[in-house]
Amino acid sequence: MSLLAIGINHNTASVELREKVAFGPEKLPEALKQLSDNAAVNGSVIVSTCNRTEVYCDVKPSGKSKLIEWLSQFHQVSPEELKPSLYIHEEQAAIKHLMRVSCGLDSLVLGEPQILGQVKQAYADSREHRSVDSAMEKLFQKTFSVAKRVRTETDIGGQAVSVAYAACTLAKHIFESLEASTVLLVGAGETIELVAKHLSANGCNKMIVANRTRERALPLAREFGAEIISLPEIPEHLGRADIVISSTASPLPIIGKGMVESAIKARRHRPMLFVDIAVPRDVESQVGDLSDVYLYTVDDLQSIIDSNIEQRKVEAIQAEAIVSEESAAFMSSLRSLQAVDSIRDYRRSANAIREELLAKSLQALATGADPEKLLHELSNKLTNRLIHAPTRAMQSAAEQGEPAKLAIIRQSLGLDDN
Q1: Does residue 168 have an active-site annotation?
Q2: Are 234 and 174 spatial neighbours (Cβ–Cβ below 8 Å)?
Q3: What digits encode the pLDDT tens for the residues 317-332?
Q4: I need a labelling partner for 55 at 20 to 30 A (CA). Which of 62, 300, 302, 340 fits?
Q5: Do 243 and 271 meet the contact criterion of CB atoms below 8 Å apart?
Q6: What is the pLDDT of residue 337?
Q7: What does pTM read for this prediction?
Q8: Sheet containing 183-186, strands listed edge to edge, beginning at the edge strand earlier in sequence
Q9: Taking the CB of residue 79, how many other CB atoms lie within 10 A of it?
Q10: 19-52 burial, b if ≥16 CB within 10 A, otherwise e?
Q11: 3-state per-residue secondary structure call for the chain
Q12: Which of 50, 57, 103, 204 is catalytic?
């Protein structure tokens, strides 16, 4: 058994190459089948995301070269194009790499949590297609527990490092519970969609989407059960919102100071949070001068994000230490398992010798032989038979000038302890 990880990622390959070697849902079943049919591969799991394609395998000694050849042929990418971007990790290095990937230590965004779900899905897909052997099973289950330990013992994923996530985190800090808050989302683009996902995941279930066209906002509203209004309707509904998060492509501000003053008055001065992600701004800067109003711009969020990225780097030091410790321990446990067959064979051989000699002694005893003489003969024969193979091994090591091998045999026989 030999553990192997082969792949490319955002650090080693261009987007064009990553697209060529990606395993989409339509390709994955056939790929796993081919790996299962490969005589050099005992078990395999394929992890394929927009930023990486990696094949984790339990392979026979000849498996590495054959796996590279298979990857090249499967995607019809020449070895000359593929190999410069390819990385290969073996044994403990492969274990450590998988653990780092699953903990977000090898991600484009340090500590991002989505990769663990993607690795779990890859493992589930491989199990479904019966390409996971016992070694892969043990490796991935251990990896998931290590990822859980990293998330528990470090705060590597606890700091906002995206504008959408930072906006949501800011809202959570100012309002005790998002469940009781009404959020007005201005715009319906990708950033607002990410904001809505983060808000929903944190319990917010009262959202209003304001957009230039209702049709563009409809998918977002359906997904999160939000109400839709047009941009001209914002003044009428602004007073209902505890939190306003805006990201449009408007060249001029959509929300002005007078509009917010009216909303605050209607709210009887209950506080409002405005998070303006747009460039140019959607909210007039003078809004921040009003009492009971908190206004944050994209620059404010970026400073929070920069600080959080530095904090994640600090947390990553502890996470790396955990991964190093756990990968070494897992490799040690695998090596001990590899000795099980040898130990079992050695015990079987010794027991066979014992039973053979004991049977002969009992037969001689039954015919009236002297018991004391039989015990001496049995002990001598048993000793000679048991030490025969180690004696020959030591003689061979000495004759062939292999002192290291001789030292290992002596150690295994306990001679250096006496």
Answers
A1: no
A2: no
A3: 999 999 999 999 999 9
A4: 340
A5: no
A6: 75
A7: 0.67
A8: 227-230, 207-211, 183-186, 243-246, 272-276, 293-297
A9: 13
A10: ebbbbeeeebeebbeebbebebbbbbbbbbbebb
A11: CEEEEEEEECCCCCHHHHHHCCCCCCCHHHHHHHHHHCCCEEEEEEEECCCEEEEEEEECCCHHHHHHHHHHHHCCCCHHHHHHHCEEEECHHHHHHHHHHHCCCCCCCCCCCHHHHHHHHHHHHHHHCCCCCHHHHHHHHHHHHHHHHHHHHCCCCCCCCCHHHHHHHHHHHHCCCCCCCCEEEECCCHHHHHHHHHHHHCCCCCEEEEECCHHHHHHHHHHHCCEEEEHHHHHHHHHHCCEEEECCCCCCCCECHHHHHHHHHHCCCCCEEEEECCCCCCECHHHHHCCCEEEEEHHHHHHHHHHHHHHHHHHHHHHHHHHHHHHHHHHHHHHHHHCHHHHHHHHHHHHHHHHHHHHHHHHHHHCCCCHHHHHHHHHHHHHHHHHHHHHHHHHHHHHCCCHHHHHHHHHHCCHHHC
A12: 50
**Residue 272 phi/psi, 5° resolution?**
-130, 145
Count of CB atoms within 10 A of residue 275's CB? 28
Distances from the Cα of 29 to the Cαs of 36, 38, 322, in angstroms? 11, 14, 34
Contact 196, 185 (CB under 8 A): yes
At 392, list the tokens.
Answer: 């020959």
Burial grade of 417 (CB within 10 A; 0-12, 13-18, 19 or more) = exposed
Instruction: Give the chain's length.
Output: 418
Cis amide bond preceding 280, omega within 30: yes
What is the signed CA dihedral for 176, 180, 181, 183, rounded to 10 degrees?
140
**pLDDT mean across residues, the chain:** 92
Give the list of residues 6+ apart from residue 33 with CB closer than 8 angstroms, or none. Answer: 129, 131
pLDDT of residue 50: 85
Cβ–Cβ < 8 Å for 259, 234: yes
Residue written as token pair 């079992």: 344
Pair 164, 195: CB distance under 8 Å: yes
Cβ atoms within 10 Å, residue 389: 11
**Residues in the chain with pLDDT values less than 50:** none
